[in-house]
Specification:
With about 220 residues, the protein is α+β, with helices and mostly antiparallel strands. It is built from four helices and 13 strands. It has one domain. The protein is about 25% helix and about 45% strand. The strands form two sheets. Strands 1, 2, 3, 4, 5, 11, 12 and 13 form an eight-stranded antiparallel beta sheet that branches. β11 and β12 form a beta hairpin. The radius of gyration is 24 Å and the shape is elongated.
Length: about 220
């Protein structure tokens, strides 16, 4: 019995060392992956990388990871003129396979999301925009105008964010000049997205516009 206890303790120590080595290896791999994401041009700012596979070394030897998560608060998007920040960007990648002797990867599936502040969305609308743009309820946004406000629906069509269905309230309902221009449907196309990433949905929320993305199956990253 005494010998069995020693054996179990010994196995426990060995197991702990192996787990420790695995965690060190995954930490190094996550940092290298973050650098590779930038050097490959997929993102312009270094993200935090989380590799969920355990044990990692087994997956690495097999050349395939089940799940990798990238997160960043510095990702940017543009409409070709103005550039804004996507806050709390997160990309969930699945079936990530190593290619070219571990110098690149192919991603089987992926999706992402993040949020853009209303003041930044305003930059894309009518040359600096619907000033004071804010949440107006499910699917709706509004902006203050002299004597009232303007409300519209915000949604996406392909890689474009669209604001339409405008209505004026109060004295502002008497259209003139700029007010009439602002009632026209407005849209802007997001460009500069990481390769393979497309806008799937834009949804107004209390804290900003939630953007959801999809990743084209088989997207490749490498040097």
């Amino acid at each position: 019995m005494h010998g069995a206890v020693k054996l179990l303790i010994g196995l426990g120590v060995v197991g702990g060392l192996l787990v420790g080595a695995d965690r060190v290896a995954v930490g190094v791999a996550e940092d290298q992956a973050a650098d590779a994401v930038v050097s490959s041009g997929w993102m312009t700012t270094k993200p935090d990388v989380d590799i969920a596979d355990f044990p990692f070394l087994t997956s690495a030897v097999a050349g395939e990871l089940d799940k990798v998560t990238l997160s960043s608060d510095g990702m940017t998007v543009t409409d070709g003129k103005e550039t804004v920040t996507v806050h709390a960007f997160r990309a969930d990648l699945s079936d990530v396979k190593f290619t070219d002797s571990y110098r690149g990867v192919t991603i089987g599936r992926g999706s992402g999301q993040g949020q853009v502040d209303y003041r930044d969305v305003s930059k894309f609308l009518v040359g600096g925009g619907l000033i004071g743009l804010e949440y107006a309820g499910p699917g709706m946004v509004k902006a203050a105008m002299p004597g009232g406000s303007i409300e519209g629906k915000l949604h996406s069509e392909g890689n474009e964010v669209v604001v339409d269905g405008f209505q004026l309230t109060g004295v502002a309902s008497k259209l003139n000049g700029l007010a009439a221009d602002r009632l026209k449907p407005q849209r802007f196309r997001l460009t500069g997205l990481p390769a393979g990433l497309s806008l799937a949905e834009a949804t107004p929320e209390a804290g900003g516009v939630r953007l959801r993305f999809t990743l084209a199956p088989g997207t490749s990253l490498g040097h």
